[in-house]
Write a structure and sequence with these properties.
Bound molecules: zinc ion
Shape: extended
Number of strands: 8
Strand content: 25-35%
Radius of gyration: 21 Å
């Protein structure tokens, strides 16, 4: 069957296994680039505040998502926060079982109007509480690469 043929019988479908090599470069953009560079180089969390509406974004943005105005500058925030919600994850992205269940939390980030979704570390599921104060756990500086996994997770503070 060619690519332009109409599928009339779904029980007669065929497929071919193979790989399609794709090379690409992902760029963070101006705001996220500052955010990830600050974590990598200084272990700091950079936020940005819209002068028009006052919303403080984390990670830092270069444009306000609400007002669509340009945001100038960034401010370091502590990177601490409060657990807003959490769950236990038992499967990997490919739906295979994880060796160990992982805790994932939605965290209200201090000094911002944003929530961060990330792993909880250093705590057992039965000890996690909504409202629990947490702080970031970063990789050692030499191991940071400028991406979200530089943050190992958030642990009770
Ligand atoms: Zn705004």
């Amino acid at each position: 069957m060619g690519l332009t043929e109409r599928i009339n019988k779904t029980d007669k479908l065929s497929y071919y296994e193979g790989q399609i090599p794709i090379e690409y470069v992902y760029t963070y953009g101006l705001g996220l680039e500052k955010f990830f560079r600050a974590i990598k180089d200084q272990g700091k969390f950079l936020a940005s505040t819209c002068k028009e509406c006052g919303v403080t974004y984390l990670p830092a943005r270069s444009f306000c998502e609400r007002c669509l105005v340009k945001i100038e500058g960034t401010t370091a925030v502590p990177g601490t926060g409060t657990v807003y919600s959490y769950t236990t994850v038992h499967l990997n992205m490919d739906e295979s079982p994880k060796k160990e269940p992982a805790l994932v939390a939605l965290i209200d980030m201090d000094g911002t109007d944003c929530r961060f979704l990330h792993y909880l570390t250093g705590v057992k599921a039965d000890k996690v509480k909504v409202g629990m104060k947490v702080k970031p756990a970063l990789k050692a500086k030499k191991d940071r690469k400028g991406h979200i996994e530089d943050i190992v997770g958030f642990q009770p503070s």
